[in-house]
Here is the input.
Amino acid sequence: MALPPLDSPQWHSSSRAFLWGLRSITQTILTIVLFVTYLGIGALAHDTGFSLAWALASTLFVWAGPAQIILITTLGSGATIIQSAIAVTVSAIRLFPMVVSVLPLMRAPETKRRQLFFVAHLTAVTLWVECHRFLPLVPRDRRIAFVHGLGFGLVSVCLCANTVGYFLAANLTQTLGAAILMLTPLSFLFSTARNSRELADIVALVLGLLLYPLAAKMNSGLDILVSGVVAGTIAYGVHWFREART
Amino acid sequence: MSSFIGDWHALAVLFVAGVIPNQIWRMLGLWFGGGLDEGSEVLVWVRAVATAILAGVIAQIVVHPPGALASVPDVLRYGAVIAGFIVFTLTRRSIFAGVVTGEFVMLAGRAWLG
Here is the structure.
């Protein structure tokens, strides 16, 4: 399926643009990656003792896979609400630059801020990547509708995946249940590694993996936050040092 | 209380510790995003910390596994991640190939150990 040319009458209505956005979820491998990730999140929510409604509400209202997993694992391992909130807040900072870079792609002089509300809500790593890929092929005045369709489609896929994962974890043998839980670290590790192009990001990923077991030994309840801030700051230092030398 | 809804307290925690911490950044991006340079130094640091936190989450699930995953021996979980990563690298960063390999190694090891 190719999108219609920019001057096609297909783009004359917003609802058509919404449908083209919706259909575009079939055009990206990231839809499968999201499905697998959210299958894992559904299973994780089940095995950590959360209800299905809780898992679905987290997908609908949080809409950020890493934040959802941090929330489930920290609350599940006995952290307080404050500790979880801090870890999630820090992990979510990356949404800020994403929103900042995505909105200019669809803003027109007459665009009102409230028209961009749902676009901001739907922005997460997958939508961010796909906006940069698809939007140049969409007329500017139909881009908001297109992104609404794309985001609606992706959220729907993830809600289905959550439900399937939740019931699979509840009903499968222990081995297959473990296999579904294993999907989460694998898909996150590889999708993060794929998105890490800058030196700082690669160092942060590797050090973050290595420092966590050390931080966990301190038993502060803030293990992930401690290892994350230390590893991330060292990674930034490496980046700074290299920039300063060139 | 139905089992679908579960505990209302948990849903309240979801909003305080999950929804608000995420929406704050999105709404700040919506309100103040106009004048910020995407390549600024602060954002490089922010992205590095966010990546390292995510790496910590990945490590936590593998090192201190939840639920059914805890029944898998340590060596199989680590082996699955390492094998998956090797294939991911060899296939020019195919997420799909890496995940399938990791899962295969874990399940095969499980079957082989009996």
In short: The mean pLDDT of chain B is 87. Helices of chain B lie at 8-32, 41-63, 74-90, 95-113. The radius of gyration of chain B is 20 Å.
